[in-house]
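in:
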């Protein structure tokens, strides 16, 4: 697997489709979506993953993951007990293959054709001990099961935070070392960056750490994930009182950092703020 790099971060535009008028289809009704195969269940799709991808890691789930997506105006919710993360020789994510579903006869394949690294988006901000368990992919991607192929947007709902963490880490090829929910974040140069989002810090195999958040407050063409290497942070000023924001001064190493100049982060939880400031202060001290 390749290490996480700021240049690999997928630029996202929020194109979530409305599902308010969609009906829901359970796992037991999947015949509507996926006709039963005329051939024996099998091994052909399974062989494809192991034959054509250099790096396949299986994530066993406790007990399952529920995926949701819309097809033909209907909202489908299906459960699977494991996910195979399939990457090519360069470390690029090619597909997720889900198995262990009730009555499943062919693998459910979530394909990624884009060369950019897809960022698993946490749909809800962490608040205290309440961790986000739903991960979505806001760009449309290819789904294949048997002979059925279509484009849709998928979300994954995990039962346990540990499974959700491993899923993110395997996709990004990095270790999740911090997560904190933000009420808002602002920069001096661009104004409000985001509201009600998560701030994650990821550590790559080379030891470098990157701060990651989704700038959902920016105008449409700038709604994207922003990655800031921790070695691009010049200083951090922890809040003097509880409930106040932390202030980060940024080195102008990249164009976006030159535009932002600094970043004010208001965390939802004071303990998360304290842990974040302690981590960054330590890095600045030793580095």
């Amino acid at each position: 697997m390749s290490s996480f790099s700021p240049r690999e971060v997928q630029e996202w535009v929020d194109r979530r489709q409305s599902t308010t008028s969609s009906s829901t289809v359970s796992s037991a009704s999947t015949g509507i979506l996926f006709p039963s195969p005329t051939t024996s269940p099998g091994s052909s799709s399974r062989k494809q993953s192991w034959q054509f991808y250099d790096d396949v890691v299986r994530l066993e789930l406790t007990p399952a993951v529920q995926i949701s997506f819309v097809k033909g105006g209907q909202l489908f919710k299906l459960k699977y007990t494991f996910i195979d993360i399939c990457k090519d020789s360069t470390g690029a994510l090619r597909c997720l293959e889900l198995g262990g579903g009730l009555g499943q006869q062919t693998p459910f394949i979530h394909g990624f054709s884009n060369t950019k690294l897809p960022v698993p988006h946490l749909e809800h901000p962490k608040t205290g001990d309440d961790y986000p368990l739903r991960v979505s992919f806001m760009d449309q991607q290819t789904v294949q099961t048997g002979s059925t192929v279509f484009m849709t947007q998928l979300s994954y709902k995990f039962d346990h935070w540990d499974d959700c963490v491993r899923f993110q880490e395997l996709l990004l090829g990095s270790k999740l070392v911090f997560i904190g929910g933000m009420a808002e974040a602002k920069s001096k140069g661009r104004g409000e960056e985001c509201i009600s989002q998560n701030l994650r810090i990821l550590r790559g195999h080379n030891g470098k750490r990157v701060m990651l958040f989704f700038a959902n407050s920016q105008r449409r063409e700038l709604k994207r994930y922003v990655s800031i290497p921790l070695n691009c942070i010049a200083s951090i000023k922890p809040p003097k009182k509880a409930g106040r924001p932390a202030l980060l001064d940024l080195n102008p190493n990249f164009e976006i950092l030159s535009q932002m100049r600094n970043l004010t982060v208001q965390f939802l939880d004071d303990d998360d703020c304290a842990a974040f400031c302690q981590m960054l202060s330590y890095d600045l001290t030793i580095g």
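note: The helical segments are 43-52, 161-172, 255-260, 270-286.
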